[in-house]
Amino acid sequence: MEKGRESPKHESKGRRLVLFPIPLQGHMNPMLQLANILHATGFFSITIIHTHFNSPTISNYPHFTFCPIPDGLSETESEASTSDSVALLSLLNTNCVAAFRDCLAGLVLSGVEDEAKEPTACLITDAIWHFSQSVADSLEIPRIVLRTSSLSSFLAFAALPLLLEKGYLPKQDSQLESPVLELPPLKVKDLPTISTRNHEVFYKLIGSMVKETKASSGIIWNSMEDLEQSTLATVRQVFPVPSFPIGPFHNYFPASSSSLLAQDKSSISWLDTRPPKSVLYVSFGSIASMDEAEFLEMAWGLANSGQPFLWVVRPGLVRGSKWLEPLPSGFMETNGGRGYIVKWAPQQEVLAHPATGGFWTHNGWNSTLESICEGVPMICSPCFGDQMVNARYVSNVWRIGLQFESGMERGVVEKAIRRLMVEKEGEEERERILCLKEKVGFCLKQGGSSHHYLESLISYILSF
Ligand code: UDP
């Protein structure tokens, strides 16, 4: 299992791995990171099948082969993608079937008929590409699933049919604070739901994802046994296929370059001018959105806290606005240079910067992991899907952040920022997250759990 460590770069590759990412930022990043991890072992060549929509920046990966497939999305559907990701993902699972099958069949066949080409060892797809299991079955190649969320949130997704049956869902306002007895420590409000035009489509998509994950040959997780130990035992019962928690992916290599948006590097030079641990970094990821009133409460909470902040306001973050129009004129000036706003930041570098002292996040799983790995305590504002589960674990299980439990009114925001950045509570959270950072940092080292699971994953794939 030492091949890559002796001669990691370009040698002739024995087996081909075909990877198929979901074209959303939070899914694309981990899949491309996984591709790099597996390539660096020296055992595999990498072929990425990808949709035209949100296609990766191919020039950043000269060591991979890329196969684009048509996704059948009209311009309007692509534009609407972030406002209803359930509709988008469901549509893609229908639109891509034929093109994906043809592409994969061609790759598999070329490895069989042409001796100069590597044989395909297996297919690795995002769990959301549920249709790909039947394609893999029909071509008789194993499919391993990449699940880009935490193990705990995937268990919550898997439990949705039961929770519907038991009446926890749809969520009733009067029940939001009630505990979900089957999934401690979750409350009803933490269950992974999402606003979409048609909830039936959501439950169907999740049901298919769970069913086809159970039918797969294994699951790769961007998480760590040391972080989710007891959950891993339950996952093994619910999904009786081999599980490989080999995260955190982004820590195998220096900061990744799979950003779908241009990263504003001026954030780093701005951070360079600030004292250590003084800046609150604020970002809600690539999909979450809010209305103008919420945005203004955030803005005034940030301003009134008196703390320096670096704020990612993605175009599209505020529904109905192009960018910063809702901010009152002169807002930035009233902050006396304490605030800096960009459209998209090099997040991993920002979190690793000595000036960054806190992260106000939507708790997408990548953001949560990145924050843990840099030891930056969090303020949690989960918006949809798995984010509520991640936030509950951050605030109640790992106790490395605080969560807004009922709305984000400016006075509450201001207090929360002070609690995290300057008060004792924040100091305690910082101490706990620094311990966790150390524990998680060990996972990738010789003798660490992720290191061990990566070795088993390689042996497993080579056994196909
Ligand atoms: N990200 C970034 N710049 C930003 C905001 C986010 O590079 O300004 C990256 C972040 O590092 C993470 C990903 O985008 O890897 C967001 O994934 P996550 O799962 O946190 O949230 P999602 O975008 O899927 O909601």
TrEMBL record:
<dbReference type="GO" id="GO:0080043">
    <property type="term" value="F:quercetin 3-O-glucosyltransferase activity"/>
</dbReference>
<keyword id="KW-0808">Transferase</keyword>
<dbReference type="GO" id="GO:0009813">
    <property type="term" value="P:flavonoid biosynthetic process"/>
</dbReference>
<keyword id="KW-0284">Flavonoid biosynthesis</keyword>
<comment type="similarity">
    <text>Belongs to the UDP-glycosyltransferase family.</text>
</comment>
<dbReference type="GO" id="GO:0080044">
    <property type="term" value="F:quercetin 7-O-glucosyltransferase activity"/>
</dbReference>
<dbReference type="InterPro" id="IPR002213">
    <property type="entry name" value="UDP_glucos_trans"/>
</dbReference>
<dbReference type="GO" id="GO:0016138">
    <property type="term" value="P:glycoside biosynthetic process"/>
</dbReference>
<keyword id="KW-0328">Glycosyltransferase</keyword>
<protein>
    <recommendedName>
        <fullName>UDP-glycosyltransferase</fullName>
    </recommendedName>
</protein>
<dbReference type="Pfam" id="PF00201">
    <property type="entry name" value="UDPGT"/>
</dbReference>
